[in-house]
Write a structure and sequence with these properties.
The chain is mainly α and about 230 residues long. Helices cover about 55% and strands about 0% of the residues. It has helices at about 1-5, 30-40, 45-65, 70-85, 100-105, 125-135, 140-160, 165-175, 195-210, 215-225. The protein starts with a helix and ends with a helix.
Length: about 230
Amino acid sequence: MIKTMQQGVDLSNKLTYNSSREDLVIPEYGRGIHIMVQYMLSISDKAERTNCAEAIISVMKSVVPPEGTEEEGTHKLWNHLHQISGFQLDVDSPFEKPNLDDRYTKPEKLTYPNETSRAGHFGRTLGSMVEMAKKLEDGEEKTILITKLANTIKMHFLTWNRKTVERSFIADQLKEISSGELALSEDMELESTAELLRNIRKTSDALDRKRPVKKNGKKNKNKSRRR
């Protein structure tokens, strides 16, 4: 800078920093694409402007690869291009021009269930099965569903308590969850504790195999192989 001033040339007005520039609409795409969009808006011919927009879309796709299907990804890029241009883009787009008002429209509030479960620790699915069993008439189908419910309750208990569970406990739990409408009869045969524990162990082992191996684990494996 001192050398520049000594030569009598002042370049201070040519030195620009991001702090003195306009904020980027979508920073992920970088300032280069925003400059391209501004140039595209200055083109008077609509056909040429459309070609320029398509070229910018291809660059945007390489900078930030879109997720989802190809159509969904392309649609998202065009929406972003409209957004970067301040919704002033007038080209032949393959998708409908987004409405500026939609950007400031609040989404509808999600409705969450407010009812409380009598046995939340068993999960909502089991509760739905209980309600379904209540509506069935007495017969083979209802007996099968009650047996499935009892086995599910037993499996949930064994997942956290690896001990033998009494049949009377399962019967009491089923009666409590169903408000006394479902009963475990003596002739209903439940799965053995050993079989349920075996299935739980298989599921647990399968989940462990899907988990990424730690760096230390890999190093230890390599060391053991070398030995």
